[in-house]
Protein 1
Amino acid sequence: MRILLIEDDNELSQMLSIALKDEGHEIDTCPDGDRGSFLARSNPYSLIILDNVLPKKNGAEVCQEIRKAGINTPIIITSALSETTDKVSLLDYGADDYLTKPFSFIELAARIKALSRRPYILKDTIMTIDDLTINPMEQKVTRGKKDVYLTRKEFLLLECLMKTPGRVLSRGIIMENVWDINGDPFSNTIEAHIRNLRKKIDTGNSKNKLIHTVPGRGYKIDGRK
C-alpha cells in the first residue's frame, strides 16, 4: 500500500514512516498542508494520514481540497483535539477516520486494516492479460497454470503496468507509482526490476512476450502478438 503521511512533527513523522515501512508499505512524507494537498491530488495513494494542525493549510482545508478534486482515497485525520464536535466536523469534511493524539502505532495499524476492508477501497480487482493473472488482494500472480513468485517491488511494478495495458509508462511515472517521491529516476533500479519481471513472467513463453521496452519512452505490458 502506498501511503501519504502529512505531519509537521519531524520526530513523529520519522517514527511512523519507519513503522509503516516495516509493515510493508511505501511512504511519502510531507510537513505542510499546502504541499500535502498537492501530493494527494497528484499521485495515486491508497491511504492518507493527515495531521489536523499544519503549517500553510490545516487538515480540514487539505481534506476539503482532496474531496473537491474528486479523490476518494481514504483519509485518517490525527489531532490533539478530542471533542466530539471537532471529530464530527472533520468527518463532515471528508475524513474517513479520526485518531486522537497521542496514539499508539498498534491502533493506527488497526485503523488502516479496517479501512482496507471497506468495499470502496477494494478497487484492486483481479487483472488478466493473455494467460497472466494478478490478484492484488491476495498478492498472487499466475501465468497459465503456474504460480509466479514476485518480490514486493516486482509485484507493485507488475500491478502498475497491468492497470494500463498497452499504454507506455515512462520511467518517471513508474518511479512515482512504485517507488516513493525520493526515488532516484536516473538509477538503474527500474531496469533491474523489469529484467527480473521478464525472467519470471516471460521465460518459457517465447511465442508471446508480455513485457515490452519502447526505446526512448518507457515500458508497457501488452498481450497482443
Protein 2
Amino acid sequence: MSNNISRRSLIAATALLAAPTTLRAQTSARLLIIGGGFGGASAASFARRHYPEAQVTLVEPNTQFVTCPYGNLLLAGERQISHITHSYDGLRARGVRILHDRAIGIDAPAKRVRLQGGDTLTYDRLILSPGIAMRWGAIEGYDQAASEIMPHAWVPGDGTQTLLLRRQLEAMPDGGVVGIAIPANPFRCPPGPYERISMIAHYLKKHKPRSKILALDAKEAFSKQGLFQDGWRALYGEMIEWVPGNRDGKVVKVDPRERVLETEFGTRHKVDVANVIPPQSAGTIAIEAGLANDTGWVPVNTRSFEARAAQGIHVIGDANIPGPMPKSGYIAHSTAKQAVASAMAGLRGEAPPEALYFNTCYSHVGTDYGISVVGIFRPNADGTAIAEVPNSGGVSPRGDLPEQRRLEAIYADTWYEAITKSMFG
C-alpha cells in the first residue's frame, strides 16, 4: 500500500472519530435541528452521544433519507435504491425527538420555528441544515416542471429524481446522446458531476456501447480533473466529450419538449437524455429568514458556524459559504460536530472550542477504479477566515496504478458505510 493511500485512510478514519472537546451544556438546553441530511443527522447523532442531558429535536419532512453520495452508482446499475436509503430509527433509539414535518419560518429574536403542520417549536440554540435550493429560471426554460423531463437528480431525500434519470437511461436507445449541463461554482459536491459522467459511461459501455455523453460545463476546470480524464480515456475511449465554458460549454437555455440544451453563443444540442444541474443557493428557509447574502449563501463564523446575520443560529451543510472548504458531505459531517459543540459552549457563555475540519472525497470512475482528494482546514482565532492547513491536502497520484485505484474504490465503500453509520446509528 502506498504512503499516499495510507495517509488518506488515516485522515478519513481520524476524521470520523474526531470530536470537538467542550464542557457539557446545561441540562435544560433545547437544541433544535432543522434538516436530516449529512449536516443535520450528524449534528443530532453527535449531540446525543456527547451531550446526553440536552433535549435534541430534529425536524425533517422525509421519513427516510436517500443520499446523494452513491446515487451515481445507482445510475450505473451498481447499487439499488435500498442501498442508499437510511432510516431515522437509530437516531430515535439514541433519544432524538424526530418530527417529520417541514420548517417554514424562523423567528430568530423569539427563538421560534414554525412548522408546515401548524406547530411552533422553541429552542435555546438552532442548528440549521437546510441543504440547497435550485435556482429555477437561472437557466432559461428550466423550472420545476422542466426537471420532470430533464432531471437534475441533485437533491437527496426520497430519491425520486435519481430514479427518474435512471429510468430515462434505461429507456434510451443504443446510440443515443446523454447531455449533462454543469453549473459554475459554488455548488453542492464539486466532483459530483464528473463522477456522474463516469458512472453513466460505465452503464452505457456495458449496455449501450454506441452511445455518447456530451458534458457541457460552465467552468474551465474542475475538481480532480486530470484523474477523471485519465480514467475516462482508459475506460471509455471516445464516449465522453467534455466542453468547458471557454469553448461554449455554458448552458443558458433549455427546451424540455425538444430535449435541447442551448449554450451561451447559441449552439443548440439535441440530446436523448438531459441531466441539467442548475445553479443553486442555500435552502429556501435560510434565505427567507434573511440569513443569506447577495450570493444566495449564508456567511458564518468559521469557528462556530453561527450565522453572521443572526445570533444563536448555526448554519451547517451546503447552505453556508465558509471560504475555501468545498460543499461536501464530509465537510457537513465534520463541521456539524463543531457547530453543536459551539452551540453548547455558547449556552454556558464560553467561547467555541478550537476547530479543525476534515474533508475526504472519494469518486468512482469505473469498476475497481476510485480516486480521492483530501484536505484539512483551520479557522483563524476570531472565525472571520478559514484556510487549508499547509501540506495537509492532496489528490490521488496520476499514472497507471491499478492496485491503487482498486484500493481507493474499496476505501470509498468503507467511507460511505462508516459515515452513514455515524449519522444514523
Protein 3
Amino acid sequence: MQLQVKGKNIPVTDALHEHAERKLQRLAKVLPQWDEPPLVELELSVERNPKIDRPQIAEITVRTKGTVLRACESATDMYAAIDQASRKLERQAVRYRERRRKRRQGSDHELERMAPLPDDLVIHVDEPAPSLVKRKEFALKPMSSDDAALHMDMLHHDFFVFRDADSGEVNVVYRRKNGGFGLIVPLSA
C-alpha cells in the first residue's frame, strides 16, 4: 500500500503519519491483492471557522485497479477523525470485495487472488446491496452554471443536472460540504 498524507491548515507530524499508517494497514488486508499496491491518499484539514463543531477533517481516497473508494469524516480530534474515516473505508472495502466475489463466482482465478479475510477483520454488513428504486425523466434546459446553482438552491436539492448554454454538454452542479457549489463537466473522449 502506498500512503500519501497531505495537510491543509495543519502540519502533518510523524505521530499523525504513523497513526494513519497503523489504521490503514488493516485496509490493505481487506482489499483484493492486485499486482500493483493500492494508492491511498489521506488529506488532513482543519476548518478555521469557530462555528463548526467538528473542525478536524480526514478525507481518505483509495485508488485501486478496480475502483475508487472514498471516506470523509470530521471530529474534534484529528486522531478520532482518522479512526472514523478508516473504519468507514474498511466497511466500504468489505462490501466492494464481497460484491466482486459474488459477481465472479464462476471464475476460480479471481477467487484465488482473494484470500479469506482474517477473523479480526470480518465485518458483518447487514445492509442490502443498493438497488435502483426510482427513475426520473426530465427535459434538460440550456442555462448557465450560475442559473443551475440558483435552481438547485431554490429546489433545496444537493445536485442539479442541466445542459450548458455555451457548450451544449450535460453538466451537473452540486452542493459541497463547506457550503459552496461544485461543477461537473464531462470530458470529450
